[in-house]
Amino acid sequence: MAKKPSNTDRRAAAREKARQIAEAQARKQKTAKRVLYIGVALVAVLVLVVVGVLIYQSTKPAAQPQGYTEGSVTFVKDGDGVALTEDPAKDSKDAKDNAPNVKVFLDYQCPACAQFEGLNGKGLGKLVDDGDISLTFQPVALLDGQSGGTKYSTRSANLMMCVVDSGQADKFQELSLSLFSNQPEEGGTGLDDQKMLDLAKEAGVDVDKKINTAEDDVTVKDCVNNIQFEDFVTQSTKEALNGGLKGTPTVQVNGENVGDWSDQQSFFAEILQAQKK
């Protein structure tokens, strides 16, 4: 007959079992802590990666449409037509020697810009055609807050970039004049995308033509609907403001602000006088 364990043996067995349970619990807690530490470390690494990506995204240059330099696009005489140039001082094509550069900062929501284009747009275009000047346009977005939340200033500037990036820069000036002649009231909702595309087609733009900057197949129409160059418009507008831009329209001849563009005779005389300097 088996001998019954004594009280001492039972107490010893109980202590051993308790020890084993405690060790198992300690191992379990240690494992849980290790898993927790690893999890915390992974989360910390993930946070750093996300922060790094956000910083990179916020600091990297926005995609620049082809034909644009520092937020602007420049036209010069080229044969019987006009062409783009990145630097009219170095690549004036068929413009006359010492042809001054006229630069116009404009916002397609700006009523004064529409007045400027109505008065001087065609005259400036003729000076380019004759080789008398190089003409630079820099669309900016200063009046997004005046279009009922639709960002019309940005969207219209983006439209022009889509057109140029698709290789249809020869339609820029006609479309620009059309946008101003169809300018919506300040404080309204601005033209919708379809209306802008209709105006582009009326100006001879092929809205189904692919743009060059996007990695995927993106047409001018897609570019407009997606506001493809929104970041670039925002970035170039900030750079213009940081460079001293106070408002639109601002007109410069060889980098110097023109005072009064409303007097056509004195305005064009000032431009042509700059050619002689």
From TrEMBL:
Residue ranges of the TM segments: 35-56
The secretion signal range is none
Sorted alphabetically, which keywords does the UniProt record give? Membrane, Transmembrane, Transmembrane helix
Q: What is this protein called?
A: Disulfide bond formation protein DsbA
Q: Lineage of the native species?
A: Bacteria, Bacillati, Actinomycetota, Actinomycetes, Micrococcales
What is the native source organism of this protein? Answer: Brevibacterium ravenspurgense
Span of domain Thioredoxin-like fold: 98-266
> Cross-referenced Pfam families, in alphabetical order?
Thioredoxin_4
